[in-house]
Amino acid sequence: MFLFWGLNLCIMRGIMIYMSPDKIRIVIADDHKVVREGTRELLQKESDLNVVGEAGDGEEAVKLVKELNPDVVIMDIAMPKLNGIEATKQIKAIAPATAVLILTAYEYDQYVFALLEAGAAGYLLKDVRGQEVIEAVRAVRAGESVLHPVIARKALDHFVHSDDKDKASKLPSLTDREVEILQFAAKGLSNKEIALVLSLSVRTIQSHLGNIFNKLKVGSRTEAVLAGLKNGLLTLDDIIES
Predict the structure, then answer these.
(1) Cα 151 to Cα 88, 103, 174, distances in angstroms
(2) What CATH number is given to the structural domain containing 149?
(3) pLDDT of residue 163
(4) Structural domain range at position 202
(5) Which has the closest alpha carbon to 121: 70, 80, 58?
(6) Mean pLDDT, rounded, for 205-216
């Protein structure tokens, strides 16, 4: 099972199909055709999901994002022409609102940290069940962070214990309210749940999160949490439920 940030770490080729504005529009990027076909068949069974394109390499994935502007890209790491790390960087540069969900067999530290730094909103290993992939797509589309338990442990250990001597001088100027909302987001609370706790409207929470993303120069909750950890705005106590 995968983890959202804060959930008790006690731990083709551009094939186009029917598109509906009410569905989550997805591009699948994997160099293995059988994996793409299996993932597409899995997702297409869901009434709210729509695979609008497939890519067999990183360059094609970036091209499809430019052409189709999908909501979510499901991305492998090891691909020809352009690997998943570089493809993720380029996708987030041209389409920051597109969420990148990594689905791979690789859990090497260098891949994990590089992809999270590049802006991936989620990172799953291919040993997860099909239903978990479906739920992860919906979650990253909703702005949530989705991490496989192995990846979550690696990320927390790395970013919490990283030695940044210039950390204090690089702290973003978040307001007290913004820090409070970032802490709740790090625990995995949805916008609606944060709004209820703080007696604010969901729209106000969304506005605060937008300001947080802008100040931290990030485009997703995963990036915001990692930035908060690296800059000392968040601690392990903020991530783990008491």
Answers:
(1) 17, 12, 27
(2) 3.40.50.2300
(3) 54
(4) 166-239
(5) 70
(6) 86
